[in-house]
Amino acid sequence: ILDDPDLKDIDPTVLKHCHAAAATCILEAGKQKADISAISTCLEDCKLDKERIEQFCTEYQKNKDALEILLGSIGRSPLHITDVSWRLEYQIKSNQLHKTYQPSYLVTLNVENSGSGSHPDVSFSCTMEQLQDLVGKLKDAAKSLERATQM
Prior knowledge:
With 151 residues, this protein is an alpha+beta fold. The chain has 4 helices and 4 strands. This is COMM domain-containing protein 3.
């Protein structure tokens, strides 16, 4: 969009804000399964002229089915961790053949989404300090949840 010669006189920041606003409008309309009259009313409230509203609604109607399929594939519920596995990896040399005695942990989270079954596992590598920090934060979250359920 920034390279379009018709838009060269518009401040790039304003252009990015307009793009974000249009994308948000389109996504919310798709998420709410809004009809053309609801979209038109909303755009009229935003002071858009009739010609632009008609053009927007025409393009939205053309791409509505593809948008709903895309939004449906994203899902609404967060992933659920079903299992965790880990292994210790000990790096002895780097790519430059320098000796580096660095232990790290390879952690794999088995996840699933309640709406669409299983997903690819989430894997990451971390140092001992990072793993201890993660475990500490998980313990804090568990304590907070326990306190919240006791009230």
